[in-house]
User: Fold this.
Amino acid sequence: IIELQSQGRPDLFLTVIEIYLTDSLKHNDVIHQSFEQADSEALFKACHSLKSSSANLGAQELSDVCKVMEKAGRDADLETISQKLSEYDSAFDKTREAVLALQKQYQMKS
Assistant:
């Protein structure tokens, strides 16, 4: 992404990170709300989106747990989602911390 940056344009790398941070929080909220409301369709969609964006960013652990939860959401398998939720929360927090640290490190270099 850094190599694609054009001079005089908004910083592409920071833009991608900022979009991910914003969108991942929204998806996280939907995942938790959907689980509480037993809305497997909304949970499926949120897990699918977060799985893909996390994989694109290199957050494989989060992407992997989202993949399992995505399938469970598609199958309306709330028991599996319940079993995976703490693993998901841990991977989400870990990923968010890493992305925030990366953002800070990159801003300090710029």
Summary: DSSP finds four helices and no strands in the chain. Residues 84 and 109 are 37 Å apart (CA to CA). The chain has a mean pLDDT of 91. The longest helix spans residues 78-109.
